[in-house]
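Progress note, sequence design subtask.
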């Protein structure tokens, strides 16, 4: 256990679980119950974070569905008479950048930065929900599927435009959330390690 605590670089929580399990299996005498307790603490912490992350992601996706399908401020209650779509990659992105002076600032932010960041929380929360190693490929796949579902809903209900540029921005934005998760993960580990050492010192 001391070798794990003394490690200089923060490790991923699931890696820590595997390390604790390996140490426990190696300790045939069972003379160190703290190792088992530490393992249970890590697993319990992961489960609590996973459940909270699941609830947050569920409510966030509900908010997204409301705004893209029912929001009056976005004109979703008016809709279109025909199916609206853009299947040319980067056409709308380029149009907003080239003619940015022709658009209001809120419209520019909504269509570019808004679409870029709308699925960033997914990239942050999904690894916490899965409670195991999650790479950028899985983030991209899940973000792509969710974004595609949203775009198809807008198309079939005629309340919005199916835009391939939105798919691109949404998917790329999920990687921003994943990068934030990767940066924040060591701090979560360090906070847990501090609590662990404090509990061990009080025993």
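Output:
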């Amino acid at each position: 256990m001391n070798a794990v605590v003394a490690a200089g670089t923060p490790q991923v929580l699931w890696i820590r679980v595997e390390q604790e399990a390996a140490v426990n299996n190696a300790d045939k005498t069972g003379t160190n119950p703290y190792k088992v307790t530490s393992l249970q603490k890590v697993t319990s912490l992961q489960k609590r974070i996973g459940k909270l992350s699941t609830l947050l992601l569920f409510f966030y996706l509900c908010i997204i569905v409301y705004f893209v399908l029912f929001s009056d401020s976005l004109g979703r209650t008016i809709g279109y008479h025909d199916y609206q779509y853009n299947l040319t990659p980067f056409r709308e992105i380029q149009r907003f950048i080239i003619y940015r002076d022709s658009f209001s600032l809120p419209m520019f932010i909504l269509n570019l930065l808004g679409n870029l960041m709308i699925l960033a929380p997914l990239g942050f929360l999904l690894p916490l929900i899965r409670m195991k190693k999650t790479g950028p490929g899985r983030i991209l796949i899940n973000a792509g599927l969710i974004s595609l579902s949203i775009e198809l809903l807008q198309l079939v209900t005629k309340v919005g435009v199916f835009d391939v540029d939105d798919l691109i921005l949404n998917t790329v934005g999920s990687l921003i959330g994943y990068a934030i998760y990767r940066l924040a993960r060591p701090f979560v580990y360090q906070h847990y390690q501090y609590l662990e050492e404090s509990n061990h010192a009080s025993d």
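DSSP finds eight helices and two strands in the chain. Work on this subtask will continue into the next period as scheduled.
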